[in-house]
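Batch manifest, entry 17 of 40.
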Amino acid sequence: MILKSDQEVSIAKVQMVFAAFNDSVKERNSLQFDADLMRRVRVIDATSAGTAVLELDVGNEYSNRGGSIHGGAAALILDQFTTTAFIPLAATAAKQKDGYHPPGGFTRAMNITYLRPLPLPATIRVVSEVVQHGRSMSLVRGKITDKGGEKLYSVSEHHKGCTLGAAWAAGGGGLGKCKL
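Output type: structure tokens
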């Protein structure tokens, strides 16, 4: 019997949740504005310690008039993808008994610092790490860098509600089971 490493299992969980998201968008024939990003993202790394590294090609459709990433687009990317660090901590989508529920709960607050313009088009990395994880509230830090991780463009603190409470850990899923 070959045992998979923590990294392999964590990456597989992230890929499974992303596939479930994309399938749910197709099934509903949805025009969700985050669906385009979900189709483009590539999982580079993830661990059960609550970390994730993603790569994404961002085109000019996300730029401002100056040709750099629009602040709102950077916020969407950080909001959508910093939550990925929670996925290895959650029950897999296959274990969720009442349909697909992303294991990220909802955004309570998000602070973003834009450090320099990010010229587009570009391939970026989104790196995230769970800092604190509780029953009903959690904190994840994220950053947007260039593909090599050398230039830092934006950093965020993402405060989440109902991320992975007891219902998630048991595989039950759903925000309806979260008590604030």
